[in-house]
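Study both lines:
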Amino acid sequence: MRTRKTTPADIPALKAIWNEAFAEDSAQDIDEFFETLYPNATGFCAEDETGCVCAMLFALPQTIVKGEKQLKAAYLYAVATKKESRGQGYCRACLLYTSDAADDSLRV
C-alpha cells in the first residue's frame, strides 16, 4: 500500500471512486468539484500494490474565527474507498497520511 497526494492525472480514478461511493451526486456535480474546488483543495489517496487508487479524500482549506483569532484548518471532504477495497485499511492509511502531512502539504 502506498499513500500520496493526488495529481490531475488521478482525476479519472478519483471520479470513478466518487461516483461509486456517492451515487446520489450527478456527473455534473462531480465535474464541478474538480473544475472549481479541486485546484484549491489538496487531494490524498491510497494505492494498492499495482498502483490502483483505492481510497481518496480532499482537504479543503478553511479559516476558523474565534473572537479576533483566525485559525487555519482543513475540512475533509469526499472521503471514500472503492467497494472492492473496503475493510483493508486503505482509508485509514489515507487519513493517517493526511494527518502526518497536514503541516507540510495542506494549503490552509
Residues 43 and 58 are 4 Å apart (CA to CA). The two ends are 27 Å apart (CA to CA). The first helix runs from residue 11 to 21. The first strand starts at residue 2 and ends at 5.
